[in-house]
């Protein structure tokens, strides 16, 4: 082998290793370029949303899931976010707030007189409403988050937020309330259990209203592609999150996610979808699940969901915070 060829092969190998070591940064730069060249996708046309859904304006939709639960939809934003206003007798929670390209706070405040606490299901930019949408913010209490929140001021990292390509700055939260996984949040006459559902990110939570049998799952599961290949994603965490959900849901539980694929309204998933996700994860772990693509690889779950993950040789099956 000539010296020149050896140098070329070493350089190529280093480039490939570098590409994989810094794959998230490379992807972020690629996305930034795509958004700066092509712009943020145009608003989707307004579709027929059915009788249950009312247009708030030309952008937001309102869907009353029951007398104390309201889905606030952004069906024209390309990610089709759905945030949930959960009302008690003393206060309300807004679970997720969209990307903030339109302000959601006046929409939520127009729906209730109760004081509203904003709770992000996780810290991705398309859930935190472009910064500080509410006076009172509650976030999950995990060691890697709590340890860097001096005086309860929490500045997100780019890996947690991922909003730079779409033009959103890293927010700093003034945290009023820390939500310990496994504990209850009392809204007055309504209790929500904080369920730790990592996988999409290490900081993801779901909220479960056992009395109403409603589960709000954020990006852990919804109708569409579930992203398990992002900087804070892992399949071991996904496995753990699915287990935590399977521990609380039953055949009547209605599961509402933070995105949808098509109208009308906010689609409902159920316990069988959790089971399908668990089965799919087990098959992936055992190398028995068919795949499409190279990176991310796409695994089927069922008719409503696919799981987008890193290829097997990059998959991590350890839980970041194992159950005790
Ligand atoms: Zn997300």
SSE layout:
Elements lengths: L2 H19 L1 H16 L14 E3 L5 E6 L2 E6 L6 E7 L4 E4 L9 H5 L6 E4 L16 E5 L2 H4 L6 E3 L2 H4 L10 E8 L4 E3 L4 E6 L8 E5 L4 E5 L5 E5 L6 H14 L5 E4 L10 E2 L1 H15 L11 E4 L4 E5 L15
Parallel strand pairs: 5-6, 6-7, 7-9, 13-15, 14-18
Antiparallel strand pairs: 1-2, 2-3, 3-4, 4-5, 8-9, 10-11, 11-12, 12-13, 15-16, 17-18
Helix pairs in contact: 6-7
This protein binds zinc ion.
Account of the 3D structure:
The protein is of the alpha/beta class. It folds into two domains: 9-38; 53-314, 4-Layer Sandwich (Metallo-beta-lactamase, Chain A). Helices cover 24% and strands 26% of the residues. It is built from seven helices and 18 strands. The protein has helices spanning 3-21, 23-38, 105-109, 143-146, 158-161, 235-248, 271-285; strands spanning 53-55, 61-66, 69-74, 81-87, 92-95, 116-119, 136-140, 153-155, 172-179, 184-186, 191-196, 205-209, 214-218, 224-228, 254-257, 268-269, 297-300, 305-309. The strands form three sheets. The protein has a nine-stranded mixed β-sheet with strand order 1-2-3-4-5-6-7-9-8. The longest helix has 19 residues, at 3-21. The site of zinc ion has 4 residues, from loops.
Bound molecules: zinc ion
Structural class: alpha/beta
Helix content estimate: 10-25%
Helix-strand topology string: HHEEEEEHEEHEHEEEEEEHEEHEE
Shape: globular
Quaternary state of the chains: single chain
The CATH architecture term of the largest domain is 4-Layer Sandwich
Count structural domains. 2
Q: Would you count the extended β strands for me?
A: 18
Contiguous low-pLDDT stretches (5 residues minimum) are none
């Amino acid at each position: 082998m000539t010296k020149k060829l050896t140098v070329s092969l070493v350089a190529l190998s280093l480039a490939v290793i570098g590409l994989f070591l810094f794959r998230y940064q490379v992807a972020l730069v690629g996305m930034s370029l795509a958004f700066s060249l092509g712009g943020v996708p145009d608003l989707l046309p307004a579709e027929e949303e059915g009788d249950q859904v009312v247009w708030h304006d030309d952008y937001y939709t309102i869907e009353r899931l029951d007398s104390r639960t309201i889905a606030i939809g952004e069906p024209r934003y390309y990610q089709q976010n759905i945030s949930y206003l959960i009302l008690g007798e003393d206060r309300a929670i807004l679970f997720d707030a969209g990307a903030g390209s339109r302000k959601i706070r006046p929409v939520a405040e127009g729906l209730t007189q109760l004081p509203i606490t904003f709770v992000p299901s996780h810290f991705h930019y398309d859930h935190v409403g472009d910064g500080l949408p509410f006076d009172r913010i509650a976030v999950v209490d995990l060691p890697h988050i709590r340890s860097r929140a001096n005086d309860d001021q929490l500045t997100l990292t780019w890996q947690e937020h991922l909003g730079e390509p779409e033009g959103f700055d890293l927010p700093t939260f003034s945290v009023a309330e820390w939500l310990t996984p496994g504990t209850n949040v009392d809204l007055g006459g309504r209790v929500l259990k904080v369920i730790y559902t990592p996988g999409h990110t290490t900081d993801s939570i779901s909220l479960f209203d056992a009395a109403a049998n409603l589960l709000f799952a954020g990006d852990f599961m919804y109708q569409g592609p579930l992203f398990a290949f992002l900087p804070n994603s892992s399949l071991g965490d996904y496995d753990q999150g699915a287990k935590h959900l399977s521990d609380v849901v039953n055949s009547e539980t209605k599961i509402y996610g933070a995105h949808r694929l098509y109208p009308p309204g906010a689609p409902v998933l159920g316990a069988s979808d959790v089971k399908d996700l668990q089965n799919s994860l087990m098959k992936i772990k055992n190398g028995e699940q068919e795949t499409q693509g190279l990176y991310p690889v796409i695994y089927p779950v069922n008719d409503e969901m696919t799981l987008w993950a890193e290829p097997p040789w990059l998959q991590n099956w350890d839980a970041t915070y194992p159950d005790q």
